[in-house]
Every structure is written in C-alpha cells, then in structure tokens.
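Q: Could you fold this chain for me?
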Amino acid sequence: MSWGDAGDLPATTSVGRVLEPVPSFVLFALVLVAFFLLIVRPQRARARATALMQARLAPGAEIMTTSGLHGTVRELLDDTVLLEIAPGVTVRFAKAAVGRIVEQADVDDHDSEHETEADAEHLGGDAEHLSADADAPASTNHPNDPTD
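A: Sure. Below is the predicted structure, expressed as structure tokens.
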C-alpha cells in the first residue's frame, strides 16, 4: 500500500484537521431528540391523561380498575377511592389503581353482550345448535352422573 493514493487517506481541511463524516456531537444530539420524541413525550401525555381522568372522578361514577375490577365510586378520599363492587360491598383502592371511567354506552354494550352469552349458556349452547336439535332428546351427560 502506498501513501500516494488519495483514496487511502482521510479527507483533510486546509489546516490539516481530519474531517469526520458526521461529528459526534451531532449524532449524540440526534439520539437525545429521538429519545425525547419516542419515550418522554408519550409518557408525559399518558401522565396528563391519567391526571385528567382522576380529576373527573366523582361519587357515582362507574370505573374499571387497572386489574379489571368494575365498580361505582362511593367516596373519594385524599389518595384513595371507596368502590362499591356489589350491593353493600365496598372496597378501598388507591386512586392510581383506577384504570378508566366507564362511559354509560360501554356499560350498555357490555351488558347486552353479557345477556346474549348468558342466554346461550342457559339454553345449552348457541341458538343454531338448539334449533337444529329441537327434535332430539335432551342430553344429560354429566361427568359425575352414574346413570350414563
């Protein structure tokens, strides 16, 4: 290898300094900007939305906790919420455990889906299955039934 080849030597300025393709501080600044845009901003937006949701909490509101428990807010304390999860059953949760406020439309949709599933289970399966086997005798196959 000879030193005379221009392709082997790094580019230099008129004062003899080596030019880097991308200065390291520019690369570092790009990493910081990407970190801010991809991690910090979304986290701030989530924190703001959570604070707004917790500010909207009021007695009588239907909520769902982060663990999926549904209940009605009965009382708000400093950093806790008393939830009624069944008639006469009240539990205490941290405000941070409130996942979302359930809108009435969500409750109505969920109830109608639950009723449809409960009706199908009560009738022993789906409606198509029942109409196809309407003339067949009812099966009483139960794993613990000694008569089968």
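A (continued): The radius of gyration is 33 Å.
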